[in-house]
Specification:
Helices cover 58% and strands 5% of the residues. By secondary structure, it is mainly alpha-helical.
Length: 855
């Protein structure tokens, strides 16, 4: 038997309405299984009862409020799905119940008279645990620990675990995990394992030999059959019969909607295992049949006799195709183990809409919008394509035609999807920044009664439609993903690990909602609700990578699909902030996917450059072009952090250079910082000729690079002893820019131009530049530009210019002295005691002081 004491502050923090604390369930299991004894002195029990009472009263208040709201809704004949308690409130009730079980399990600990006297003495001496104050809470904490120590002494307990955040008063300064030495001396025969975190306490108890129940039994839910299956048919026909109805009009469903009834489960309860891309079954016949399948010469074969089943090869292909589309790769039997399904690889090339989108063939997709389609599926693909290209009005017009066709075909699932999409598209159209800039024909679109449509849908599909229509899809996904993200954040903060399979279930949770929306052509991924889910998912990805790197395992590598999701829904600043926050030096990914990632980036650059600009009456092209610019920025940020080869980095840099030379590009972008940072961070790898072209482009146009990046690239080029030959026209351009910099008195621009000219292998370039400088400064003296040119050796000894400069310095020093009489300035304007020799005048450039030292 082991023993544990947890102070009230920790107990309170184990109650959370958004997520169950990881340590609560293990502690509850340890105690209820008799492996661990909780010790709760009277003061701790009293504090717990007060806190429990407050929580329960709050729950009861919320319960009464919910009931009143429901009664009002019913009186007004308004549909309301609210229950008496929310999910979070029910979670709190469960947590309070578990904690109460833990606290009540404690034996009675007396109020020992010698402990009360001891605490009074320690308070008076300001000895531990009263170093810093004698506040009431410290006294309560002292009563808890000393009562437990005394109880242990009198009952022969040699050690126990103590969890408290009061490290100022209780913790040892020398050894982590131990009480303060002065407290230990009072009870030298008792070892106290001190922790500030319940997670670390649980880990310690596990290492000490306490065991938890393995989650081998699946969760059970009552089966609600909605599809009839003839169980007298061979199991392949049963599967085909069920799935052909279940997935008749839905191209993708989360597995919970597929495997929740016969033939996957037999009996009253469905089965759910917390394993990604897998389903549980207790149907021996189904398990045996699927396990018998394999691939031979590009065809499915089975050890079962399928001779009497018509079209058995096609049926097997369809069944496994449905599984693969819905992300089901593994089958688990409650008694017979598990296995991975065999899949024949899909055709490598495809011209469907989804593949075109994934390949970023946006221009081709846009051309396809002009085509008139006859098939309902093609119309819905086309409407979804228009939506993704931000052509909302076009999308609605196509959907209106699709509704009429779907009604004629008696396909009310597709009618529902079209009506749902139109409702959201109207909202999104009105909320885009282009929504009010042109006449809106959408007001003519009648409001649909979607609930009436749901009523005429097949019974099997109504549950799914309501799940989407009432927003449960977003509520459930948000709660599940946010809960996982919070737990991973806690694990990082407390330097803990999480089970490896949790990573895969986390990815599956997001994929389920994203694929349900995108594959079924539902326009939900631009909603704020979806964005909040994605933001939690994105942070979770980087938390997973950080946890994996901290363990030193490097087991987790992102697939290109994960990178594409970050590109599609992320933003460059958010991604960079997460990389910085979680100190990721490299984002591991599957090397085989690198070329796919680069190919898509190169295609995107071509698409951004060629896509229609804002002169269209319909502002969709401009709005979508901004989205492409955002995606390009995220691509560029990822390129810096996923460990691309030198060849790949140079390929990307050269493509960005081509893109940057297009005259229309600067008009379509407001921010070149990601590109600038990419070039500077990869400057040691990028070919120097490409870097040089970027610097020249920057000098000519004043964009692509920020000032610091331009400085860095020039420095890198100088360190590489770069020499180049300028074409006559380029030489003339640079000389013209030198003259323009002088006209504008732009010393910063002049520095870049002169450093660039220094790299020219043609001595005449330097000579011509020197002549321009001398002639201009003789006509109009500019002290800033003179300092730059003199420092970089572009001016020869010239007593007249030098005397003029000295007079300027003399006047400058006088002005400084008048403005700052408390300090002394030397003849070059350098303040006495100024270590870095910078001038005290913000308007006086550093180069002037450098020149003073140089002279």
């Amino acid at each position: 038997m082991m023993y544990i004491v947890i102070d009230t502050c920790i107990l309170e923090k184990l109650i959370n309405d958004t997520a169950d604390d990881w340590s609560l369930d293990p502690l509850h299991q340890f105690i209820t299984s008799g492996q661990l004894q909780f010790l709760a002195p009277t003061v701790l029990k009293s504090e717990w009862e007060d806190h429990k009472k407050k929580k329960m009263e709050a729950i009861q208040r919320r319960k009464r409020t919910h009931r009143k709201e429901r009664e009002l809704s019913e009186n007004l004949n308004i549909f309301d799905a609210e229950k008496d308690l929310t999910i979070g409130e029910k979670r709190i009730l469960r947590q309070v119940e578990k904690l109460d079980t833990i606290v009540v399990s404690s034996p009675t600990l007396e109020r020992y008279h010698n402990v009360i006297l001891l605490i009074d003495d320690l308070k008076e001496q300001k000895a531990p645990p009263f170093f810093h104050s004698t506040v009431k809470q410290n006294e309560k904490d002292a009563k808890i620990i000393f009562t437990c120590l005394e109880y242990a002494k009198r009952n022969g307990i040699k050690e126990f675990t103590f969890v408290s955040e009061n490290i100022k008063e209780f913790a040892s300064k020398d050894k982590e995990g131990e009480l303060h030495l002065n407290i230990q001396k009072l009870y030298p025969d008792i070892v106290v394992h001190f922790f500030i975190s319940p997670y670390k306490a649980v880990d310690f108890l596990k290492q000490a030999g306490l065991t938890l129940k393995q989650p081998s039994a699946p969760k059970e839910k009552l089966v609600k059959p909605t599809i009839s299956v003839d169980n007298k048919l061979p199991i392949l026909d049963q599967l085909f019969q069920y799935l052909s109805v279940r997935l008749k009009d839905w191209s993708f469903l989360p597995k919970s909607f597929i495997v929740n009834q016969y033939p996957f489960v037999i009996g009253k309860y469905s089965l759910e295992y917390p394993v990604a891309n897998a389903f549980a079954t207790n149907n021996d016949e189904l398990f045996s049949f699927l396990q018998s399948l394999s691939i031979d010469n590009g065809q499915y074969v089975s050890t079962h006799d399928l001779a009497n089943i018509e079209n058995n090869q096609q049926k097997i292909s369809d069944v496994l195709g449905w599984f693969r589309t819905c992300g089901i790769h593994k089958i688990i039997h409650v008694k017979h183990g598990e296995f991975v399904l065999p899949f024949i690889p899909p055709a490598p090339t495809c011209t469907c809409y989804a593949c075109k989108w994934n390949n970023q063939e946006y221009s081709n997709i846009r051309k396809d919008l002009m085509i008139q389609h006859d098939e309902l599926k093609d119309k819905m693909d086309q409407a979804y394509a228009a939506y993704e290209l931000s052509e909302y009005r076009t999308s609605i017009n196509i959907l209106l035609k699709a509704i009429e066709q779907a009604k004629a075909e008696n396909n009310y699932v597709r009618v529902f999807i079209c009506q749902y999409n139109i409702r959201l598209l109207k909202q999104q159209h009105n909320h885009t920044k282009f929504g009010n800039e042109f006449p809106d024909p959408l007001e003519k679109v009648d409001a649909f009664d979607i609930e009436d449509t749901i009523h005429v849908m097949p019974m099997a599909d109504q549950e799914i439609a309501r799940w989407l229509n009432n927003g449960s899809i977003y509520d459930e996904s948000s709660l599940a993903i946010l809960q996982d993200s919070q737990q991973m954040r806690k694990a990082l903060r407390n330097k803990r690990t999480i089970p490896f399979h949790r990573y895969h279930t986390f990815f599956e949770k997001f994929n389920s909602i994203w694929r349900f929306l995108s594959v079924n052509r539902i326009v939900g991924d631009q909603l704020a609700e979806f964005n909040s889910i994605y933001q939690a998912f994105q942070e979770g990805i980087f938390q997973i990578l950080a946890l994996d790197q901290k363990k030193g395992n490097d087991k987790i590598s992102l697939y290109v699909q994960h990178l594409f999701l970050i590109v599609r829904y992320g933003d460059n600043q958010g991604v960079q902030n997460l990389i910085t926050e979680y100190k990721l030096t490299n984002i591991p990914h599957h090397d085989t996917d690198s070329n796919d990632f680069i190919d898509c980036l190169l295609r995107l650059i071509d698409e951004v450059a060629d896509y229609p600009a804002s002169e269209f009456l319909n502002q969709g092209p401009q709005y979508f072009r901004e989205q492409m610019n955002r995606m390009l920025d995220v691509y560029v940020v990822l390129c810096q952090n996923i460990g691309l080869s030198a060849t790949q980095i140079n390929t990307v840099a050269q493509k960005i250079l081509q893109y940057s030379r297009i005259p229309s590009v600067p008009e379509s972008r407001r921010n070149f910082t990601p590109i600038s940072h990419f070039l500077s961070s990869q400057s040691a790898i990028i070919d120097k000729r490409v870097l040089l072209d970027f610097v020249i482009l920057y000098i000519q146009n004043g964009w692509i690079l920020d000032f610091q990046s331009a400085e860095l690239l020039l420095t890198v080029l100088e360190e590489r002893n770069t020499r180049f030959t300028l074409a006559p026209e380029s030489s003339k351009t640079i000389h013209a820019l030198v003259f323009q910099a002088l006209v504008n008195d732009d010393a910063d621009q002049l520095i870049h131009l002169l450093r660039l000219t220094n790299m020219s292998s043609n001595a005449n370039d330097v000579v011509t530049t020197m002549e321009i400088l001398t002639e201009f400064l003789n006509e109009k003296f500019l002290p800033h530009c003179y300092a730059v040119a003199r420092t970089l050796n572009y001016l020869t000894e010239n007593s007249q210019l030098f005397d003029t400069y000295l007079k300027h310095l003399e006047n400058h020093v006088k002005n400084l002295a008048q403005r700052d009489p408390e300090h002394h300035f030397d003849r070059y304007g350098v303040k006495s005691g100024d270590v870095d020799h910078q001038s005290g005048d913000a308007d006086h450039p550093l180069e002037v002081s450098r020149l003073g030292q140089f002279l």
